[in-house]
Design brief:
Elements (H helix, E strand, L loop, with lengths): L2 E6 L19 H8 L2 E4 L9 H9 L6 E5 L2 H6 L8 H11 L1 H5 L3 E7 L6 H14 L6 E4 L8 H9 L3 E6 L13 E6 L14 H4 L2 H9 L4 E6 L6 H12 L5 H35 L3
Helix pairs in contact: 10-11
Length: about 290
């Protein structure tokens, strides 16, 4: 099977204290990288990182750890990959900031996440032109949010440039495991509403993904997968559960997963008690 890199989207969530991090004072990235072998950097979507920050990512993680990162939204959403509006210059600036990860061998796929308003009919040509200017020594994945992109001509375009179609679990698009590169990229967003990410996958919901991931792994060199349902630490539990179901979890990861499950269950029971107490008080105050 292909090399497997499964982790979460982001790591610096304060609410993960207890469910994952031992305390609020824990060095989050250092601790995270002792449990997982990869992470997806979500913060780069909102702003360019500083040089010092990226140096720290490279320095304070072990050898073999891999960072995937989202391209800044100025490229994907504001300019929608339009090279005539400066998207190429923005990309070069971002790649320059990623040099510490490149030099240390810790840079994985860069994610081109397009907005739902981006359609194949209107934006297909600008996407094609952008793919033509990306460097061949960096790997990219692209995530569509509109069904107009789900067609053979698009898969062929991605294959030509070795850009991975992002396989998704989300409310908008089907979870079809279409492979278009020599690596695969999977994102589990959750199935909640407002937002999607406040969602805890059950084992029953994850089970159909096991044969999908295994089938994809037969076609590629590496599989990168990230759980984006970060609320309440659900992503930690679900990513480790996926590794367990694939038969790839280490004893340490199994222990961390079990601890996370116990914590989440206890907090869920606590929330239900508070909710029930609130309902009783509301009923009494209404004169019921």
């Amino acid at each position: 099977m292909a090399e497997l890199y499964v982790g979460t989207s982001g790591w610096s969530y304060n609410e993960w204290s207890g469910v994952f991090y031992p305390s609020g004072n824990t060095n989050k990235l250092s601790y995270y990288s002792k449990v997982f072998n990869t992470v997806e950097v979500d913060s780069t979507f909102y702003a360019y990182p500083s040089k010092g920050l990226v140096h720290g990512w490279a320095r304070y993680t072990p050898k073999g750890f891999v960072f995937s990162a989202k391209l800044p939204k100025v490229i994907t959403h504001d300019k929608v990959l339009d090279v005539e509006k400066g998207a190429e210059a923005d990309l070069l600036r971002f790649l320059g900031l990623m040099k510490p990860l490149i030099a240390s061998g810790k840079l994985g796929p860069l994610l081109i996440q397009l907005p739902p308003s981006c359609t194949q009919e209107r934006d297909g040509e600008r996407v094609r032109r952008f793919l033509e200017i990306i460097p061949e020594d960096i790997i990219f994945a692209i995530e569509f949010r509109h069904p107009s992109w789900l067609k053979q001509s698009v898969w062929e375009m991605l294959t030509e440039h070795n850009v991975a179609n992002t396989i998704v679990d989300e409310p908008l698009l089907p979870p079809d495991p279409v492979v278009t590169a020599d690596f695969a990229f999977v994102r589990w967003h959750g199935r909640g509403s407002r937002p999607w990410y406040n969602y805890r996958y059950s084992e029953k919901e994850l089970t159909p993904w096991v044969p999908k991931v295994k089938e994809v792994a037969k076609k590629v060199k590496r599989v990168y997968g990230y759980f984006n349902n970060h609320f309440h630490g659900f992503a930690v539990e679900n990513s480790l559960k996926m590794l367990q179901m694939l038969g790839e979890a280490s004893p340490q990861q199994l222990e961390v997963r079990e601890r996370a499950t116990r914590y989440i269950d206890s907090k869920g029971e606590e929330r239900e008690r508070v909710k029930a107490q609130g309902s009783i008080l509301e009923y009494m105050s209404s004169g019921g």
